[in-house]
Structures are given as structure tokens and as C-alpha cells.
Design a protein that fits this description.
By secondary structure, the chain is α+β, with helices and mostly antiparallel strands. The chain is built from five helices and eight strands, in the order H-E-E-E-E-H-E-E-E-H-E-H-H.
Length: 156
């Protein structure tokens, strides 16, 4: 039931219950950033529907640098239907008019995250194009998705 709810929350056309706006203050990694709003409050935001390489994985730094090029210092809007969890927001992030998640996937710096992404999402086609062009993490022989890498790390 939870997966179904999560998918419904990120469906196009579903109105966002919460919206954050501000400027990107820092980039934590390839799918997480810190924004500051008009009231000078800081918010940690994770990009919905994508997953970038974890620290210790190939392309971790490249992915963070890519997100910085897309978002750092730029105006940002975050649309979400979920309350913050553990102090972090999860939402669709638009930096200066560009969908940060799609851009990360387009540059081969993140995967479409199957547990959060609808089967009809354009993220899958974007990821397939990045694979075909062999850009970013797709230059590697067999890139390991972060959710599998995390599972392997927990098993150790």
C-alpha cells in the first residue's frame, strides 16, 4: 500500500500539498541539496524519483558536481506531497526552470528510482538514452545502482 501511495503522490497533475522556494545554498551529493528560503530557513531536499551514486561508488563526485552545475546558487522550487522525514524533504526539484532529476539522469549521473517512479515516466526513456550514448556512469562496464550497492554494504 505504501508503494502505491508514493506513486500516486508523484503523479503528474496531482497538486502539491507543500511547496518550497528559495535558492540552492549547497549540494550534498548527486541527489541531495540544501536550500535557503525567503525566511532564511535552511532545508535539506532530496530529488524524488532518482538515485545518484553513493559515497564510495564510481561517479559519486562527478554526480555531485553535475548537480552543482545544474542548481548551485540558482533559484529553486520544490514540489512535494510528503512531510519532511528525518529533517529531509523529498520532492520534484526545479532549478532555474530545469528539472534537476531529469537533468541528472540525462547526463548519466543518476538512475531513475523504480520504487518512486511511475512506469510511464519520461525518466526511463531519458535513462535509456544516457545508456545508449554511454555518458556518465554508463561509461562503466556494469554500474551498480545505489539501492543495490547499499544492500551489499549492509550485508557486509
Amino acid at each position: 500500500m505504501r508503494r502505491f501511495l508514493l506513486v500516486l503522490l508523484f503523479m503528474p497533475g496531482v497538486a502539491a500539498a507543500e511547496a518550497l522556494a528559495g535558492r540552492v545554498l549547497s549540494v550534498i551529493d548527486g541527489d541531495t541539496l540544501t536550500i535557503v528560503d525567503a525566511d532564511k530557513r535552511r532545508h535539506v531536499v532530496r530529488l524524488a524519483e532518482v538515485d545518484a551514486p553513493e559515497k564510495g561508488q564510481p561517479f559519486y563526485m562527478e554526480s555531485a558536481r553535475s548537480l552543482a552545475r545544474i542548481c548551485l546558487g540558482k533559484p529553486v522550487e520544490v514540489a512535494t506531497n510528503l512531510p519532511p522525514r528525518k529533517g529531509h524533504w523529498l520532492g520534484k526539484v526545479t532549478c532555474d526552470g530545469a528539472d534537476a532529476g531529469i537533468e541528472q539522469v540525462r547526463h548519466g549521473m543518476a538512475w531513475a528510482r523504480p520504487r518512486q517512479t511511475l512506469p510511464t515516466s519520461p525518466l526511463y526513456e531519458t535513462e535509456a538514452n544516457a545508456r545508449l550514448r554511454q555518458v556518465g556512469l554508463w561509461t562503466g562496464e556494469k554500474p551498480v545502482p545505489p539501492w543495490e550497492w547499499r544492500k551489499q554494504q549492509r550485508a557486509r
